[in-house]
Inverse folding.
């Protein structure tokens, strides 16, 4: 079965493509020429772009924001990003990038990412804060989102 | 039937997705958050990136270059690029980008591109020259490639 | 005298750095690692990014749009872009990119660009249309802008 | 005195532009249109690109690698990247990005980055490992580089 590129992949589809348990949201894609740098491998920063593309799809899918209406609450603010590089990636390689929420608080959550292409190539994290658009402070995560974090992602709830 | 994202799409698949006759090589994809600019539509330059991704796939598929071995003939040199913007594209839109060779000479060829998302959004061109790696001049297109240009793309042969 | 990087450079400064007569607006910069591609030279598309950066500075400098207030007339729409590549550029090279309006009509204008690094490396064009934000049609170029096109750029006025 | 854009700025120049003590290597630049995203501020990932540009200049300046000869030791491998976002940046803002080595071991070092535009906007880190090109393992940092890390950056030496 060919890989269903781009379509958000959920737990069963990820498992069918050999992704370890614990990931319930992912996307398949293929390295493009413009993602390589002068060292002939995928540039380090491009992985952060992959995480961003998946993060936006995840946040839309979980109903937190549509990223289109810039007046609707919440404003999604990325506070921290990180990436760890385990093994380089090269031209034309197919890969699956995965995302999940590892932990959440009342108004913020921490996401984890991974890139698999046969083996694990890179991991990443993001800390995301939800704000009210009117500038009066933080915006609490709704129960429906907290439930998905808990049930689909196995996230840890704090305070 | 869901769109088979990324996979090179040939004439029949393109026709099945409503692309006009005359295109025999394409790829489906979806607008990503990082491709939007401050004006909230796909940045003009991003279309050139889509054309590049498809051009590399096309040149590999047609057997001209694998873009990996940088000692093998020919060296592919882009001499000219252009794009015309007909209608803006927005977040999350799905599209098909198409490519063909419109005309070729002994050592060069002119490609055309189009982006369809329901209707035609943008077109583009590229003029490509083939060089020998040893610096002794131009590299003639092999007969197998000329035949594909003629038969699959309906390209016009000049001199 | 070190090159005053980034600062918009006008006719005298450009002449002092060896740019041919006929250019009255430019910017100096230096090739960055992230602008190289897997072929180890500046990626073709990056030149279009340089043209864009200078085009925005030019349009702000000429008083056409501040690119910030997205409700103010005119809406600046890029209709066509092109680039011609004469000689590749490599890591760390310093260059000057130049812009001018070559011709204008009542509601549109055609810009030209060039990249110099010792010699001429690339040229480009853009066709730009000015629209009213209320959707009622084209927005006429004000006399002050037409005068600068004529006097500073030597542009040709049509209709 | 206008800001000397791009030129590597050393401790005195940084201090003259209001950068806190403790930074001895930096570069000035200005936000470009193409660095903004659909939220109208500088995209999160663009800061990592700024850190990369400065990291390459720093590594060249410190004599570790010229990033051109891909056969010369060491191979510079980025193992980890991170960024923390304190305050958003907008169109046309001028900024100074700074870099230093905070700690080093025999064959690796940890860099820190900061972006100042009036106040502190973002910080970052990178963990960099030096490898031998022949695949036989790690490449030890030469004494001259260790001395610069200690004397110019105030880096901490470990094992």
């Amino acid at each position: 079965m060919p890989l269903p590129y781009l379509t958000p992949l959920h737990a069963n589809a990820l498992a069918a493509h050999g992704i370890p348990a614990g990931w319930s949201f992912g996307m398949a894609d293929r390295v493009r020429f413009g993602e390589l740098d002068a060292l002939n491998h995928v540039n380090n920063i491009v992985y952060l772009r992959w995480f961003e593309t998946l993060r936006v799809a995840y946040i839309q899918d979980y109903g937190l924001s549509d990223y289109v209406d810039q007046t609707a609450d919440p404003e999604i603010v990325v506070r921290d990003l990180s990436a760890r590089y385990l093994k380089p990636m090269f031209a034309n390689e197919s890969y699956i990038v995965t995302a999940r929420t590892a932990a959440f608080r009342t108004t913020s959550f921490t996401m984890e990412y991974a890139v698999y292409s046969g083996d694990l190539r890179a991991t990443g994290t993001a800390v995301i804060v939800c704000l009210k658009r009117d500038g009066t402070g933080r915006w609490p995560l709704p129960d429906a989102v907290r439930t998905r974090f808990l049930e689909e992602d196995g996230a840890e709830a704090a305070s």
